[in-house]
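Thread: quick sanity check before group meeting

JM: Hey all, I'm pulling together slides for Thursday and realized we never actually wrote out the predicted structure for the chain we discussed last week. Dropping the sequence here so it's in one place. If anyone has concerns about the input, flag it before I start.
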Amino acid sequence: MISTNTSDSRGTLASRAVKDVYPVSRLVREARVLLEGSFPLLWVEGEISNLAMPGSGHIYFTLKDEAAQVRCAMFRNRNRQLRFKPENGMQVLLRVRVTLYEGRGEFQLVVEHMEEAGSGALQRAYEALRQRLGEEGLFDEAHKKPIPATPHTIGIVSSPDGAAVHDILSVLKRRFPSVAVILYPVAVQGDDSARQLVDAINLAEYRQECDVLIIGRGGGSLEDLWSFNDEKLARTLFSCSLPVISAVGHEIDFTIADFVADVRAPTPSAAAEIAVPDAKQLLANILGLKQRLTGMIRQWLATEQRHLQHLQRRLPRPDVQLKQQKQVLSQQSRLLDSAWQRAVTSRQQKLDFLTARLKHPRAQIDKQQSRLSALTHRLTQAFRAELKQTETALSSLQHRLQRQLPEQAVAHHRHALNSLSKQLNRLMLLRLDKAKHGLSQQVRTLDAVSPLNTLERGYSITTRKSNAEVLTRADDVEVGETIQVRLLKGHLACEVKGVSEK
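JM (edit): ok, ran it. Output follows.
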């Protein structure tokens, strides 16, 4: 019986030695590595519960939704960047790393960034679209179209049931009753609202029946006004040939449509005031201009009447003027006849003088021929003398060139080049020896300040087990947390039993 039990016991030990038995710490550690390697840095949205904010500065809470929950930790170096105070029940958007807290074997999320959900996400999308469209030039003042001073027809793109349309119509009726109004009914919020706004603007563009368009609605939250932040709507407004006034929300509300439109009005009522002039003020201005024009015309007529009377007094009798002009004409006729006779006589005398001096053309030709022959002889002699002088100078230059051939200079420079090449090789060898000596000194210096020498003297490096963060303060860890201690040879996994800040 005894020998039989001994055999069974040995068989159990042998089978256990063959199996790969995981310690709990190894299992948890490898599970953590697997989790962290499987999930990238990601965004998670949910509700805060079980919020704890201890004196260490870290934040611990549970993130949950209708079906599940997960533990979260946001360390002190990250929560300093928070712009709000987290509270239980708050809906938040987190950027997290998925990990496993080895001390309790608990799945958790390490939070890198936290912001309020809902309006925060919409605000990021709004800012990104505004920056991108601005860089494309959709908001540039150079593309803005002027609003006509006195439009005949105004188009309104809005909900027919909203207060914005009634406010616009009321202001138009009060300021400029004669203007025609065309309403393009659309939904100003909801999933289909942006498409209806685009279709209404395209319809107004196709019909070309309006002088100016007003697009808008009353105030609301960012979600209510989101249809007016649609990118397709912005590009449709930018390409529209009609002037567009944007009147979305209240004075503090700004949408992408406000930046793209030609004019942004703070309210729908203000848009109507921008679109049309005040008829009463316009009529008063016209009456004032009429009175000024009437006065100016009367003043001009009085001035012209006085000028006409002055000219009538200065105008002499026509018969006296005619008699005086006849006398002047008769005197000028006599002077002209006398001058003509003198000119004819002078021209005749000059013609006779020139005729007496004129020689036969043959004599002129013979004289010029003789002169040409003399000049040809002188030119030939001068050319020959110049040619002889040039040949002499060329011969002299050839002799000088023969004396200055470059063979000797080339030999001299080749000798100098060989000498400089040998000198360069010697200097390179000296420089390499000096560099090797300096490198050896730096290696010895680096070895002297190596942290491994510090570990040889009995010191160690302590890090957080979860994320390898180097620990320098006792209050950076909690009781029960696993930490890692690096020695000169090997590592120690330790559990914190107590914390003292002294």
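AS: nice. The longest strand covers residues 42-52. The two ends are 63 Å apart (CA to CA).
JM: adding both to the slides.
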